[in-house]
Design brief:
Layout lengths: L11 H13 L5 H16 L10 H12 L6 H11 L3 H9 L1
């Protein structure tokens, strides 16, 4: 799997926290820890966007499988949430306005 390289800047405390997670063995590298943090943030932002039709575990697994493959097309991923709950985007937009 080919991944793009990003340069990021973190303060010393965050770098120490990432390094501690790697040292504890929770992640194999700094990169893996940061990738996981980004994934978790994305998933967190999607909470409530999937209609609960009784098999949400299966739906989450499908989305996680999609997210784990490269390349990531955010428009396509966003369309998945519209498939499960089409009115969610409109409701969110109304709340923001």
């Amino acid at each position: 799997m080919v991944m793009e390289t990003l340069q990021i800047r973190l303060n010393k405390k965050l770098v120490q926290e990432v390094d501690a997670l790697v040292k504890e063995g929770r992640y194999s590298s700094r990169s893996e820890a940061i990738r996981d943090a980004v994934r978790r943030q994305f998933w967190h932002s999607q909470v409530g966007t999937i209609k609960n039709d009784g098999d949400s575990v299966k739906q989450i697994r499908k989305i996680r499988e999609k997210l784990s493959k490269e390349p990531i097309d955010l428009d396509e991923i966003n369309s998945l949430s519209k498939t499960f709950w089409p009115s969610n985007r409109a409701k969110t937009a109304r709340k923001i306005q």
